Amino acid sequence: MASPLICSSYKKYEIRKRKRNPNPKTSALLVIDMQNEFSSIAEPILSNSITTINLCRQASIPVFFTRHCHKSPADYGMLGEWWDNDLIFDGTVDSELIPEIVRLTEADEVVEKNTYSAFENTRLQEMLVEKGVEEVIITGVMTNLCCETTARAAFVKGFRVFFSTDATATSDLELHEATLKNMAHRFAYLVDCTRLRQGLFANKIM
Q1: Is 163 exposed, middle or buried (0-12, 13-18, 19+ CB in 10 A)?
Q2: What is the DSSP letter of 144?
Q3: Which of 123, 153, 161, 203 has the most CB atoms around its CB within 10 Å?
Q4: Phi and psi torsions of 162, nearest 5°
Q5: pLDDT digits (tens, 9 = 90+) for 85-112
Q6: Is the pTM of this model over 0.85?
């Protein structure tokens, strides 16, 4: 596996120069798979992830955390084939959220999933609709797999998507950058911690 990378500002990847800020009244933050299994990839973005979570909490934006895990061969799906059954199993240390993230969660904010999309076979969409959410902010790991798949699914389901450039990460720079370029082209507005702070608190002194 390649070394983890530190993500850069959204400006490098904003191909279409379309700018928009999340609306705190209709947004939710999705923190994807910040688990022990991915700790080496998540570590470089941990500070930015915590900053993003705290900014959203301060703006009264609901936060949801996904936890990828498998309970039996019946839920492997195609992941079993592509990962040679070397998956993340429920009840293991690897399946748990990393300690720094666990401290920021509430039990009803954690969504278990067993494939790349956080919407597939989960109640996530219902939970978002119940809270009146129309926009989602995507952070976490891995940029090109679960983050991208969840972002695309959200777009197709009618949610406006914001995708973090400095609070997402993967194991390969080219894959990371490819996702950011694709997202910026026709799927999502790119944000980083600085832009998020400015957008959410433009009229407030923090």
Answers
A1: buried
A2: I
A3: 161
A4: -115, 135
A5: 889 999 999 999 999 999 999 989 999 9
A6: yes
